[in-house]
Amino acid sequence: MKSSRILLVLAALAAGAGAAVAADETSLEISIKDHRFSPAELHAPADKPITIVVKNLDSTPEEFESKALKIEKVVAGSAEITVRVRPLKPGRYRFFGEYHEATAKGELVVE
After folding, report:
1. Would you say 28 and 42 are in contact if contact means Cβ atoms under 8 Å apart?
2. If DSSP states are collapsed to H, E and C, what string results for 11-71?
3. Is 107:87 a contact under the CB 8 Å cutoff?
4. Which of 7, 37, 57, 67 lies at a CB distance of 3.0 to 4.6 Å from 106, suitable for a disulfide?
């Protein structure tokens, strides 16, 4: 009986810690249409984790890539992915679509 109470308390603390982390996270959304990112510039606060949802509105796949952010992930046509980014220092972090690099360009501005 006593051990089950301890487990319940630990589970409640773990759930609360997860909610605190999620509340501290910045959520951004970007779409790909006609092989271009919209918006092409995202803004996020420094030193906080970031989640970026990338929606591909085109029927063909694209690769969301950033060497600065160390991300390389394929987004199927008419699909979406979620990318988690570690807390960053202020700066500009370039990203692009590897399959259409001439048009699919953008930056994450961390302030």
Report:
1. yes
2. HHHHHHHHHHHHHCCEEEEEEEECCEEECCEEEECCCCCEEEEEEECCCCCEEEEECCCCE
3. no
4. 37
What are the pLDDT tens digits along the chain (111 aa)?
555 555 545 555 555 545 445 569 999 999 999 999 999 999 999 999 999 999 999 999 999 999 999 999 999 999 999 999 999 999 999 999 999 999 999 999 999
Q: Answer for the pair 84, 72: CB distance below 8 angstroms, yes or no.
A: no
Q: What is the pTM of this model?
A: 0.78
CB contact at 8 A, 85 and 106:
no
Contact between 111 and 45 under an 8 Å Cβ cutoff? The reply is yes
Query: Which tokens go with 99?
Result: 């399959």
